[in-house]
Design a protein that fits this description.
single chain; 193 residues; alpha+beta; Aminopeptidase; 9-stranded mixed sheet; 5 helices; globular; binds coenzyme A; Acyl_CoA_acyltransferase; GNAT_dom; N-acetyltransferase
Length: 193
Amino acid sequence: MNALPVVTTEIPSVTSPAFVLGPERLQDVTPREMLLDRAMGPNRKRKSSEKLRRGRKPAEGLALVARDEDERLIGTVRLWNVKLGERGRSALLLGPLAVEPSVKCGGIGSALMREAIAEARRLGHGAILLVGDPEYYERFGFTARKTGDLAMPGPFERHRFLALELIEGWLDGAVGTLKASGRKFGAVLAKAG
Ligand SMILES: CC(C)(COP(=O)(O)OP(=O)(O)OC[C@H]1O[C@@H](n2cnc3c(N)ncnc32)[C@H](O)[C@@H]1OP(=O)(O)O)[C@@H](O)C(=O)NCCC(=O)NCCS
């Protein structure tokens, strides 16, 4: 039996003239990994965020993609369940967010961010954290104001460690190192087998 609450993964598609947003499907995994290699380079898996993602599934309903008119995958964002310190509250870690380099600055990254935030809020999550460029993420409400007593499980630049509260006060008193708390891949595979 799955002890996790059942939440729908059906995300209403949001359409613009050039792209459609929707939930990631199984067949998106390979194109998504190829897109991430193109957009972020080969060192992308050395990031501290990767320690919180490795071997885990994304948070339920929070793996989103953008597709172009030909259904090609041109954007991706995923969010991950974490704990804020050993005994802390739950939260989400966002990343990686990436857009196909040839269609950068077309609003796809922003659309993915807005959809991810709205969906996380709808699902009842309290806060989203990420490590990224403040100049980009500030426009969605992310700041480093409430991450001062938190840490990533590895090297990170403090001014790039950002958070957005979805529930006011969720990060008050939050202290410690982020810890992965999402569903493990192994457990799911064992169950399936
Ligand atoms: C960052 C990224 C996801 C943005 O997606 P996008 O679809 O190109 O961005 P949008 O069209 O939504 O927004 C474009 C705006 O963001 C700005 N922007 C893009 N990346 C930025 C960055 N790293 N820092 C600051 N501003 C940035 C652009 O200059 C543009 O500004 P404008 O609105 O004032 O013209 C995309 O450029 C990407 O995949 N980059 C490589 C991977 C990466 O760096 N991921 C994020 C890790 S921090």
